[in-house]
Amino acid sequence: MTRVVVLGDVMVDVVTRLSGPVAPGSDSPARIAFEGGGQAANTAAWLALAGAPVALVARVGEDAAGRAAVAELEALGVDTRVAIDDARPTGTCVVLVAADGERTMFPDAGANERLAPGDLRNDLLVAGDHLHVAGYALLREGSRAAALSAIERARAAAMSVSVDPSSAALLSGGVGRLGTGVSLLLPNALEASTLTGLDDPEAAARALSESFPEVAVTLGAAGVLWTDGGDLIRAGAGSGEGVVDTTGAGDAFAAGLLAARVRGAGVEESLAAGCALAARAVATPGARP
Prior knowledge:
The protein is built from nine helices and 13 strands. It is of the alpha/beta class and 289 residues long. It has a single domain (4-9, 38-88, 113-282), classed as UDP-N-acetylmuramoyl-L-alanine:D-glutamate ligase. It has a nine-stranded mixed beta sheet with strand order 5-4-1-8-9-10-11-12-13, with helices on both faces. A four-stranded mixed beta sheet has the order 3-2-6-7. Strand 4, helix 2 and strand 5 form a beta-alpha-beta unit.
């Protein structure tokens, strides 16, 4: 039985790991690798690692990169419900990873822009417990209708719904861009601030709880805070082996939290599970397990 359905993007990441500061107009030595990416695909991969039966609804190009991306996800245990697009190539993202592990991304959405409402089949809605939507699908105009339709249909099927806002840089328009019927919002601190205009994460979380029943704001090394508008719970970051690469940390957190929730865990246990998986992610190069 599929417990979690993830809808959103599949990308090929061109990861450039810098050994030091960027030297504008000159050379900056780096290690470059091609890796699996895309927020939805990453979250699905971490969910599979966490033991949650998961299906991924997405779209890739009719190309070698798309076939390789699907094969990699299937090898990780993800039930791939991925449409093949004959008009756009598989999405690609250039990821610059600084020497301290922080990353900056340059995405070309490719086939992800053409995600369609029909890509999510009714059998997944019948079988699933929870829908998780990668915010990129809501924030890109080409895929927005598919994401909004998925949320509406999931709620009609009595599924709970979570959204990761994905990108502070794309969040113009406020909370209205994230749809209605979302039961859990999973922003990082910058995204929460962008959505509310409030710099204090706790104040931002409480403001967001006026629009979403639950909000969990990730705080990097400071862990996470959760609120339902009344209670407020904080959880420390999971212990790990140090930061190697922060790419995919938020996706791993979401996966750990959701995997625990669909097993019936409470809030504190679910937050701890998310933080533990995020700690594993930042200690690992790349965005996937």
